[in-house]
Write a structure and sequence with these properties.
This protein has about 270 residues and is an alpha+beta fold. The chain is built from 9 helices and 13 strands. It has a single domain, classed as 2-Layer Sandwich (BirA Bifunctional Protein, domain 2).
């Protein structure tokens, strides 16, 4: 496995890098799993690949604030990215791959992260799944519930509440998983930028707060990404480790692909 601590980028660049990893895996140019660890600077928003920005986001408000948003290569729903550790796992599927199928890959990735997080003192558990969270008002006139509004099987939880938001995309035998591990409560700010009636924003924020938990009490809201890298590497002593200084050279080996993204105000 290649363990790549890539550092911090804006939403558009982060999604472009993951799209390139998936394309490389699909073409056969990337034969080993790549676990990319990264963060968002400045803070921004990503949407699932099937979501409409016009339906989900208050675009005029975002433009006025100069907030960068992008559409992920994977599915899922909207996320505000700030106080978190973010990762992507790109890998071939099959008998010689990361896992035989996407479900098994999901479980293996979450299991790997659970071991690392527990080593850091965070008492995460693997979820059995639930429908807990925020519902879309009848008629669909507002944004869909945020990504952190419900938990799925094998997702990471804290005290029974959602801690990690993870989505997948499969192309043939190539798989991309993207996930956010919460370190603070800034993800609640999504309610400020979603396409919602103004009077609904406090209720959505409150419901989202009740459905989620973060690792701030154990790690701090701005914990350095190196801590996650070191914890993962302890369980994978034979992995090849890349840092921010290696990023340009490694990116040069990946294909360039188009990403549907927005950089409002930029």
């Amino acid at each position: 496995m290649i363990l790549w601590r890539d550092g911090a980028h804006d939403a558009r660049e982060n999604m472009a890098r993951d799209a390139r990893l998936l394309a490389a895996c699909e073409s056969g140019a990337l034969a080993r799993p790549v676990l990319r660890l990264f963060q968002f600077a400045p803070a921004g928003i990503t949407l699932g690949s099937s979501q409409s920005p016009e339906a989900e986001l208050d675009l005029p408000r975002l433009e006025g604030a100069g907030i960068v948003w992008a559409v992920r290569p994977t599915g899922g729903r909207a996320i505000w990215h700030d106080e978190e550790w973010t990762f992507s796992l790109t890998a071939p599927l099959g008998p010689e791959g990361w896992a035989p199928d996407p479900t098994a890959a999901y479980a293996r990735t979450c299991g790997m992260l659970a071991v690392a997080l527990r080593a850091l003192g965070v008492p995460v558990e693997l979820s059995a799944g639930s429908a807990r969270g925020v519902g879309r008002p009848r008629g669909g006139a507002e944004a869909a519930p945020p990504c952190f509004a419900s938990t799925a099987r094998y997702e990471l939880t804290l005290d029974g509440r959602k801690f990690a938001g993870i989505a997948q995309r499969r192309r043939g035998t190539a798989l991309l998983q993207q996930g956010s591990l919460l370190l603070g409560d800034s993800h609640l700010r999504l309610a400020d930028w979603a396409r919602l009636a103004e009077e609904r924003r406090p209720a959505v924020r409150e419901a989202l707060a009740g459905a989620t938990a973060h690792a701030g009490p154990w790690l701090g809201a701005r914990a350095p990404l190196e801590r996650l890298e070191q914890a993962v590497a302890a369980g994978w002593p034979d992995c090849e480790r890349l840092g921010p200084a290696d990023s340009d050279a490694f990116l040069g080996t990946l294909p360039v692909v188009d990403v549907r993204a927005g950089a409002t105000g930029a």
